[in-house]
Amino acid sequence: MNLIFADRLSAALALAVVTLSAVGCSRSNDEPVYANLAAAEKIRVALGGEAGAVEEVAATGTGWATLKGKFTFDGDPPTMPPYGVNKDQATCAPGGQAPLQQYLLVDPASKGIANVVVFARKASRVHEGSGPKTDSILFDQKVCLFLTHVQGMTTGQTFDIRNSDNVGHNTNISGQNGFNQTIASGATTPFLVKKEEAAPVPVRCSIHPWMLAYLLPRSNAYFAVTAEDGSFEIPNLPAGEKLEIQVWHENAAGGNGALFVNTPEGKKLNWSNKGRFIVTLEENEERDLPIVVPAAAFGG
Predict the structure, then answer these.
(1) Which listed residue, 47, 72, 164, 185, has the most CB atoms within 10 A of its CB?
(2) pLDDT tens string 9-31
(3) CA 196 to CA 204: how far, in whole Å?
(4) What is the distance between the alpha carbons of residues 191 and 205, in angstroms, rounded to a whole number?
(5) pTM score, whole prediction
(6) Which helix (H) or strand (E) holds 150?
(7) CB–CB of 144/208 below 8 Å?
(8) Structural domains in the chain?
């Protein structure tokens, strides 16, 4: 046996005996036993450990980076059918024209896919500019349509739910935040969002059941919703460590909106059928991901 280790082991055992002797004779059988952290630390140091390292903390990287890209539809852009408006036609279908559905919006010119949600599932560090926000977000309703189809926000922000129609709406937000109120014509109701969601949750109108939108509250700003041209950007992500990125779309063929991209590009990212891929960014890097999505990835 190594002599240094043997000396440390003897010292540790002696310390353990002293510690047990100090508490063993005076304690009754009914008294609970508590861990003596100070004694445990001394024993661990005697065995060659470092002081102050009772709990191990996972190593993280340093610095920050940006993830951006563009989702493009592989195929002919689909044509959206009109909503099935069956009440308040003068307001909800002016001129007899109901608004078009939005479950898969593809730009005819660029073939960019709108309303794809991209977010980091977890982050060991959060940049000071990417923490929870406190400003308000306007969420309006017009022509019996939610004007923002997919909305991302952080917990702590206020959702200003407005009704710009001349008929009442009953806004119902599913999930952990649980909002369900009637919004009178011309009124705005503020709603403070306090709880994070693991995926976008539906927002509906109980009076006009065809109305549908989605809300994603997160504890930080590491999320993005693709624009009309399919582009997105998430700045200030932790660099130098693995990040698990979730990709969601309301019409994705995967369960719970998971968008699975089973292409050579997707395979390079180890894209799973849960709509997730892993990426490690270098400090100050701007990683650009051009992602072509097959038509078969939709239809959920």
Answers:
(1) 72
(2) 444 444 443 343 444 433 444 43
(3) 19
(4) 16
(5) 0.80
(6) strand 150-154
(7) yes
(8) 62-126+227-299 (2.60.40), 132-219 (2.60.40.420)
